[in-house]
Amino acid sequence: MEHKCTRGLSTCTWGLNPECWGTTINMLRNILEVLMESTPREIDAAKLEKGLLDMEEVVAVHELHIWAITVGKILLACHVKIRPQVDAELVLEKVIDYIRTVHNITHVTIQIER
Prior knowledge:
The protein is an alpha+beta fold. It is 51% helix and 26% strand. It contains 4 helices and 3 strands; from the N terminus they run H-H-H-E-E-H-E. It has helices at 2-16, 18-35, 45-53, 88-103, and strands at residues 58-70, 73-82, 107-113. A 3-stranded mixed β-sheet has the order 1-2-3.
């Protein structure tokens, strides 16, 4: 008998509490974004790419992929074409630092191309 009462109370809570629905919908949206490997809403991929292209050593950016493997754990992978005369290691450090500090993405894989 106690189980039915608890179930009924839970049903009333879900049915009458809009805050509960709002939280649940947000949680489901986050889960679906992770499962679909979509670019997280808080990341502006166009702005990130523009920031990379604004670096004088960078010629082009392609194969830019940004996705979340869990809520709050974002990964980025891309190819960065650089000018032939620049030091690839220094550019790599600069690119990674930009992505980490400006966009708060800590799991970064960059392939440098000439």
